[in-house]
């Protein structure tokens, strides 16, 4: 192959890049929303005269709705088409955001957050399905560098934007801020997302839905609670998900086809996504608390002090082409080790203040590079008909990993004594990352694309 032909092959298709940009804009709203709302929880409780237990349902209800709807996304794409599902989900999230801003008490706000969660839960799996199908297995590293941008921008902008809104405007604007973003994303998607080809008439796996959706909701709920609620919900969720797994392996058309785990690269990547969720979302939970409680910073200052991690994440975009050239495994290993190195200084009792911004840049670079490469490994060997199932599975394991990591680190903090508990918690987070690096050794050195296998 000549140099010119090779460079043409390696260049992203402008049509695919345009599609990815349109979809990324739509996915940015729910990812921003989650971080903004977490900053405003205390203000919501005060302004709505709600107890701490009641106001926590503003976040919990959203997560439960999201957990219950994610499994349906693969079936919905095959049954109705990716474009209609994308437009409907974005419209539902827009409606939920408007209703949340109009809420008159804590009960109505919780109900409207469920509406938001139903819309937001479908968006990320459909985004990945649309882009992976359009790419046809080519230049996945470069594409992942584009479509994972919302997951990077949300944690960077969310805390700062949330702090500014809470400090200077009514809490209602933490939801109204979604409206212009969603409207623009809808207008662009209506014109720019291509119509689907032939659709399947596959019936909904009702048995699978009644097992998996409540099972995932029970697991997410149990991991976010303490005491009897956790002790009851987690076993119930585990049993329901286990029974679903047996059902899915026997069914000719399951809600989520677990046969994608027969692909070695996908199976290892899914495990890594769970472990990456532990470290990534656990760190997102720990770091703002660390700056506010252990170092005495304000909400806005804590958000600004976390910005270096976002810089590192943006620098990781350069690893997309590298992943295409050398394969996911070297990038995953290097990324996980960099992430552990960047987390370790926070485990010291009195780290030098000048060291922490540098550590955050290294952590953001490593974590995001690893996440990008893991996604490439997951999709590179899947045939087009299995991509919706792969997208659904990826989203499920990421969410469960994030919930589990947050629960473990919250428990570590609760068992400690004041600010001295933070070094112990960051050691746990570092350990999660080291375990993920060890699992990364099981990735194939090069992952054959679906095209090459046919």
Structure notes:
- This protein is mainly α and 454 residues long.
- It folds into three domains: 14-191, Growth Hormone, Chain: A (Up-down Bundle), CATH 1.20.1250.20; 205-254, no CATH class; 260-449, MFS general substrate transporter like domains (Growth Hormone, Chain: A).
- It is built from 23 helices and no strands.
- It has helices spanning 3-10, 14-39, 41-47, 52-55, 57-69, 73-80, 82-101, 106-135, 140-147, 149-168, 173-176, 178-192, 206-224, 227-250, 264-294, 299-305, 307-315, 319-326, 328-343, 355-379, 387-415, 421-440, 450-453.
- The radius of gyration is 21 Å and the shape is globular.
- The protein starts with a helix and ends with a helix.
How would you sum up the major sheet?
Answer: none
Poorly predicted tracts of residues: 1-9, 449-454
What global shape is seen?
A: globular
CATH superfamily grouping of the largest domain: MFS general substrate transporter like domains
Strand content: under 5%
Number of strands: 0
The level 1 CATH classification of the largest domain is Mainly Alpha
Q: For the terminal residues, how far apart are their CA atoms?
A: 21 Å
Under the CATH scheme, the architecture of the largest domain is Up-down Bundle
- Using the coordinates shown, work out and report the CATH topology of the largest domain: Growth Hormone, Chain: A
Mean pLDDT across all residues, rounded?
A: 80
Number of helices: 23
Radius of gyration: 21 Å
- Based on helices, strands and strand pairing, what is the structural class? mainly alpha
Helical fraction: over 70%
Write the element-wise H/E pattern from the N-terminal end onward.
HHHHHHHHHHHHHHHHHHHHHHH
The number of domains: 3
